[in-house]
Amino acid sequence: MQITLDTPLDMHLHLRDGEMARLVTPCSARTFAGAVIMPNLVPPVTDSAAMRDYAERILQAADGCDFRPYMTLFFKNQTRQELETALANPLFFGLKLYPAGATTNSEGGVKNLGETGTTLHLMEEMGIPLLIHGESHGFVMDREQDFLPVYRNLATRFPKLKISMEHITTAAALELLDAHENLHATVTLQHLLITLDDLAGGMLKPHLFCKPIAKRPADRDALLQAALSGHPKLMFGSDSAPHPIHKKECCGCAAGVFTAPFALAKLAETFATHQSLDNLQAFVSGNARRIYALTPPDKTVTLVDTPMTIPAAYRGYGQEIVPMDAGHTIGWSVA
Amino acid sequence: MQITLDTPLDMHLHLRDGEMARLVTPCSARTFAGAVIMPNLVPPVTDSAAMRDYAERILQAADGCDFRPYMTLFFKNQTRQELETALANPLFFGLKLYPAGATTNSEGGVKNLGETGTTLHLMEEMGIPLLIHGESHGFVMDREQDFLPVYRNLATRFPKLKISMEHITTAAALELLDAHENLHATVTLQHLLITLDDLAGGMLKPHLFCKPIAKRPADRDALLQAALSGHPKLMFGSDSAPHPIHKKECCGCAAGVFTAPFALAKLAETFATHQSLDNLQAFVSGNARRIYALTPPDKTVTLVDTPMTIPAAYRGYGQEIVPMDAGHTIGWSVA
């Protein structure tokens, strides 16, 4: 069995910077035609000059692969002029809003959502998508659900603003997705597959720890069914996030799961297992292209049901990353 | 401020065996008059000869401290004769029942609770307490609540059997405790203090990972209030469980939090903070002595509000254990 995917897109990706970016960028660029690049560097990417420079570093790191980085700015109540400058860069995609402190390197995020209205009106007017890390500061299992009223409020107040609920993890978020025309969502590979049980039900598995945290079986099942059915508003966004091994296997382990190199193969295996391969194209590219009118570089990737073993670690440039399911064999691979 | 506690008891303690037991036994024996010793060694302590030998090793490891190990047998549908032999040992305390696979070294536990009736009838008749690790095999946050109907059923079917719900973690378990005269419970230090947020709400903290997993704020608050109020059926049981550092800070982290050396100091601080010091004696000894008619060795421990810093690690006999709150300073210490 095999499938050829046109222009696969990863609609939520962390490439970090420096040596780490040199190691992980080709892991995505080899199989994806493009990816939406998160701006939560240290310091975050808040202006167009930093965005341009970061895009250049990514393109260099892509090592000759035809790969389009769809660049985002860290939401900071940008002005009209700042947004216009950003729009002048053809790689600019949208703004990513983090509630302050919600995840890795988000300390400079939005403290008061009430003060974002001016920028959101501008974005609506100028057709700039808003990507949101939608978590409250409440109890870890409730953070996404607690945040849903914020999405609802924004979707209602800014009906022409394209809003993406990033890396959704709950059945409740899926329900909301269907309730507002201008809401869209990404979902990661791991949230289609794991629950809190996989992270902490047996041994504790730091390499399955991410934000938002994996939820209940009913949530995972709902997300998987939506993806398998080709839900037209749901897009693949890996949220693949490399952390050096010493930040994962230590007294305090950073949040983030690394899946980029084998995400398409694992998705193909998952969709094939559920007799849903026909819907994979929509999930990994078609929906995003239609929703955002994207024209990524022509690129096809063929996946076959030939097993591959996920490496114990990805190493290079002085970095070492342990991926999800390190050492496990999956049933599909890139041809 | 200070408090002198008579015969402090730890009603749920893991000492392991060999070099590890030599390192950790004095950590408990220095401040506690006695402790209920868990039988989940490899292989588990299922018969009286193994129990006698294990008790001897513990007494040797106690290094001259006056310390009573209240020994338990791993529940294995023991016969009348096996129970009579156990009762002949004055250190024998009761049977510990593990659902198979529920926690560390419990693979040989009970697979079918329906087949335990004969032994439970004997225990009821012979006055032998039953201690239960009460978790289902369901979703990790629901396991204790899922198990409550089993407690209810046993408490009703065996009204004279003293049943202890070990290391309870939920408000629901507390409610059940009040509903049946023959139900009692232990609670750990960490479950009075932490929630899942402390384990996984920020960075992932392997040294706060235990079974049952820490629950919601409302659960933690209910447990703390019950302990502070001197709830007459709630006993301190640390569930202090040493794991070598390489089994905590690695790809798969074992469940267990090590608190024994400073548990009384931290409890004193906690009770003092809430103006409840008067109820600490009941929680750490009085309730257990009354419930089980225990006569531990005479021993008093005085705690004072002089700060101490929890070591980064406890080392010795080739072992290294990282405790809860390693490197943190707490407000009380042993005088």
Automatic annotation (TrEMBL), chains A, B:
Alphabetical UniProt keywords: Hydrolase, Metal-binding, Pyrimidine biosynthesis, Zinc
InterPro entries: Amidohydro-rel, DHOdimr, Dihydroorotase_CS, Metal_Hydrolase
Pathway(s) where this gene product acts: Pyrimidine metabolism; UMP biosynthesis via de novo pathway; (S)-dihydroorotate from bicarbonate: step 3/3
Top-level taxon of origin: Bacteria
EC code: 3.5.2.3
Gene Ontology cellular component terms for the protein in this record: cytosol
Cofactor field: Zn(2+)
Residue positions binding substrate: 14-16, 40, 133, 243, 255
Cofactor note: Binds 2 Zn(2+) ions per subunit.
Modified residues (N6-carboxylysine): 96
Active site, UniProt feature: 239
Family assignment from sequence similarity: Belongs to the metallo-dependent hydrolases superfamily. DHOase family. Class II DHOase subfamily.
Oligomer status and interactors: Homodimer.
HAMAP family: PyrC_classII
Function: Catalyzes the reversible cyclization of carbamoyl aspartate to dihydroorotate.
Protein name: Dihydroorotase
Organism (species): Akkermansia glycaniphila
Gene: pyrC
